Amino acid sequence: MAEPTNTPMPPSTPVPASTPRSESPAPPATSLTPNGTTAVMPMRFPPPPEGEGGAKRPIVLHIGDPTKYNPETHAEFSEMFEVIRPSAAERERSEFIKALKERRWGDFTAIFRPFWGTGGEMGRWDAELVDLLPDTVRVFASAGAGFDWADTKLLGERGIIYCNSGLAAAEAVADFAVAMIISTFRHLPWCMGAATLPHLLSRQSSSSSSADDAPARKAFQLCHAQATAASHNPRGHVLGLIGFGNIGQQIAAKLGHAAFGMRIAYYDVIRKSPSMEMTLGATFYGTLEELMKASDCVVLCTPASSDGKPLITADSLGHMRKGTRFVNIARGSLVNEDDLVAALEEGRVGAAALDVHADEPRVNPKLIEMAGLDGGGCYNGLPGRVMLTCHNAGGTVETHIGFEELSMRNIMAVLQGKEAITPVNMHLLKAKE
Structural domains in the chain? Predict the structure, then answer.
């Protein structure tokens, strides 16, 4: 399946089904969270050999748009390597395969994709593509946190380190998650819609001279009275984080005792250190069921499973207390949306906010209905209980700057025989012969 955009969403490391884990299988060299850990991944092969007659610059295959945010790093990068950038036409799958067979770009040693919006024209990096790569390739560094478009296991078996850039998106995603969490407590879709949507509908159905703003005024007044009675301060409520990697930790830091005063709980296959738990005021729960039962708002911030099965289902939702809130800034495939709709209809889930969707760019029509003000999907008379966004969480200029910089730094490190900064498949890596 072709995926021309490797979305800037946080987690996409395939792991066993129903097994949340940290944002990065290999922790970053420098953590962006309080008391974050530092880890060094051992290299399993030496730097590229020198060519005949002296040193020869390694070739880097640059797929996608030119870099534009980090000129100084790119100047250093271009001095170290011979950078070849195929045209958009050459990146189309059929032509790309032909070029690899012809060794059109020589024995390149790295693949560089600095933007998540371009460079994926060849589609999924499966066996058909990976098997055609020269034996000289040592590292594939890409923008974006998600990499379900690449077979990282197969790359590892070829001795190729795959590096993502999820670390660069962590702060943006965490900030967005804060807004969505607050939305579930304060019913922001209803508040915003009641202030604007009735006016727009009146304007569309009436001439400007005879428009009656009574429906708009009524919607405003009802929201002012009723949303107030249904809203709550986040302080003192339990925020349950499914996954406690870079993003989960930043959400905890932003909403915990030092700021919004929420009580932080988390579930992860890897329990964090006592010092980190103490710094973030986080309580560990050993099972998803226990976390769901304890939480007032559940946030999904864990990678997708390798088998594609959802983690949030009727079973897991059934452990929630009635009225619990739900936020997804991870992957749409992790949620059975029909089960979520049913939980919203019965009031098991009181409010939800989803940045990612199971069938992007299509959004579940039932969820759209619940996000509206026409009374559809109401629970206790509350319309607009669902906030829906367009996979925007990681999308900031600062994220793109970080994607570009981190991708170059990963290649520079690996090709100099140093540790990769954000590898995701070191546990699958086989040494080059």
Answer: 170-388 (3.40.50.720)
